[in-house]
Amino acid sequence: MRQQYFLAPTLRDTPADAEVASHRLMLRAGLIRQLAAGIYTYLPLGYKVLRKIENIVREEMDRTGAQEMLLPALHPAEIWQETGRWDVYGPELMRLKDRHDRSFALGPTHEEVITGLLRDEVNSYKKLPLTLYQIQTKFRDERRPRFGMLRSREFIMKDAYSFDLDHEGLNKSYAKMYEAYHKIFERCGLDFRAVEADSGTIGGTDTHEFMVLSEIGEDTIAYCDACAYAANIEKAEAVQTTYEQWATDPSPTVETVDTPGVRTIEQLSDFLQVDRKQIIKSVALEVDEQVVIALVRGDYDVNELKVKNLLQGESVRLLDESEVHSRLHSVPGFVGPIGLDDHVRLVADYSVRGIEQAVVGANEQDKHLIGVSAERDLALEDYYDLRHVVEGDACPKCQGTIRFAQGIEVGHVFKLGTKYSAAMGATYLDEQGKAQPFVMGCYGIGVSRLLAAIIEQNHDEHGLIWPKSVTPFDIHLIAVNMKDDHQRALAEEVYQRLLDNGYDVLFDDRDERAGVKFKDADLIGIPLRLVIGKKSKERIIEYKRRRTEETGEMSVDKLMAHMAEMWSQL
RNA sequence: CGGGAAGUGGCUCAGCUUGGUAGAGCGCCUCGUUCGGGACGAGGAGGUCGCAGGUUCAAAUCCUGUCUUCCCGACCA
Predict the structure, then answer these.
(1) A552 strand B contact, CB < 7 Å
(2) From the alpha carbon of A516, which nucleotide's C1' atom is closest?
(3) Residues contacting residue A242 through CB under 8 Å, at least 6 positions apart
(4) Predicted confidence band at A184 (pLDDT cuts at 50, 70, 90)?
(5) Which residues contact A202 (CB under 8 A, 6 or more apart)?
(6) How large is the average pLDDT for residues A490-508?
């Protein structure tokens, strides 16, 4: 491609609205332009990379035996109503009406559509297992699109769906995908971890997220410094903490003390001169319709998701201040586990077990209770893992220690089971002629997010640095001075020879000064650069590797041998 | 949805406090000089100052409303 007419408008100044590196560089290097919040145009350069990523995904999917297809992006409301997700999915579902006032949605994911298809088209155990996938534009009306392509409202996703006879089959399909995902992200040149996760609104049991390690990642990963254990912080197991670690003398009787205006654990710890570990934190939640108080030791935080999962609820949220009064008959900042109404469900984290002389809220303005014994005074049936892990926790799998890292979620694999097939009556006939629901898995990769994640891990202060596998061009050929006849002629010759030998070349044939060309080349980040300049009369040209900045010279007559060697070393 | 910031030519921004003529740098076009890390000179094109309403003889500037974008939080595949 000749750069003179190639639409890759580079910017000298950083667009004011771009904060994160990938967004900034994609705009500056001319990969994308923004149309609206979370909605982007892919310019030729950006689209070229995107297609390379798609092809890696496609190759690895095909290798597992999955079949590519394309489902509609526009979905009639009825199919979403069948599974109940028309209501459950909420405002993130982009909805619209046609001229007859019929409701539609722009697909944010395709469980309904694919399950509906299989319900009609596959009826026999003889046709299973089956895995189908597509690479397609998805729509999600994010509350807050941000970080450029990392969280957008219209994005490109690869979604795959497996259909099996039973859970054993699902496990095999899942394992294949899990392995394929590793290959895909390795081929993209990424530093990533597969982590255990919560399944969220898509539903299902087992699930892993694929996280690209990055400081700007929105997810926190808890990983072990000794073994392979890694989990999203929302899911990470907290090891049962034992009584002996913080036991104090047995409690005397419970007393009420005045604590005017003391509302936080920190203030309380200062005010009463007690260790935070001696305070029992009471968090007021609603799980589905049920009011729940979750107890955790004062130096920990409640993981709401764990509370929801313990009670097998569908939703969880904090009660707001007015609800603490109206539904809990307590006072915000002074909520405690003693003297609650019967309808309130009390659950406690392992860390609460055995605390003596504890401090808790009194459910009265400006009052706390002291001298509480968890065993004696709290009517607890049992203790559970309800807290967030913290750095330094013990690993749940080995003797190691938990550390945190930030990650960008680029892939997610779920075992759905029969959640959708049962809801939609999607069944096959087994060998006994009996109808059985498909046992399903679903597997997503945010392809456009992957593009941004690759950039987050592959750039420097000058611009992009493409991994070989996804680079938009193989070689950036620069003629320093297009007005010099020797240089121009040699550049044209080299360009043709590279093309003839199968290299994809961006040829900077613009009538620009050398500095402009070099700056743009650094910004665009093609891994190999060939510069045709002063020594063109001697048929000598220079090369530079973008990533290492290594430079050198070569004779044009040995061009192909050199290129083959340099390319193989990338 | 709560909090904060910002909308002036393609990009980065000044002007607004104290109302009166719309500016700079980069980019773009023409000519000349230059030509290995974002050149220089001269000339030129390009802007209903986000939109609507109000105040005023007069609004980019003051007032009200509204839309959009970004950041933090809440929320979330």
Answers:
(1) no
(2) B38
(3) A354
(4) very high
(5) A109, A111, A414, A416, A442
(6) 97
Strand B close residues, chain A 33-72, CB < 7 angstroms: 34, 36-38
For A3-62, write each residue's pLDDT tens digit.
999 999 999 998 888 889 999 999 999 999 999 999 999 999 999 999 999 999 999 999
- ipTM of the complex, rounded to two decimals: 0.94
**B4 C1' – A22 CA distance, angstroms?**
24
pLDDT tens track for A431-445: 999 999 999 999 999
Q: Say which nucleotide is closest to residue A551, CA to C1' distance.
A: B36
Find, among A403, A395, A406, the residue nearest to A191 by Cα. A406
Architecture of domain A3-188+415-455: 2-Layer Sandwich (3.30)
CATH superfamily entry for domain A473-569: Anticodon-binding domain (3.40.50.800)
Find the helix or strand (DSSP H, E) in which A209 lies: strand A207-213
A180, exposed or middle or buried, with CB in 10 Å at 0-12, 13-18, 19+?
buried
Within A 75-94, residues with CB less than 7 Å from strand B: 92
What's the CA–C1' distance between A525 and B49, in Å? 37
Q: Which nucleotide is nearest to A203 (CA to C1')?
A: B77
A522 touches strand B (CB under 7 A): yes
Chain region(s) in chain A for CATH 3.30.930.10: 3-188+415-455
A515 touches strand B (CB under 7 A): yes
CATH of range A243-384; options 3.40.50.11540, 1.10.287.1770, 3.10.100.10, 3.90.960.10: 3.90.960.10
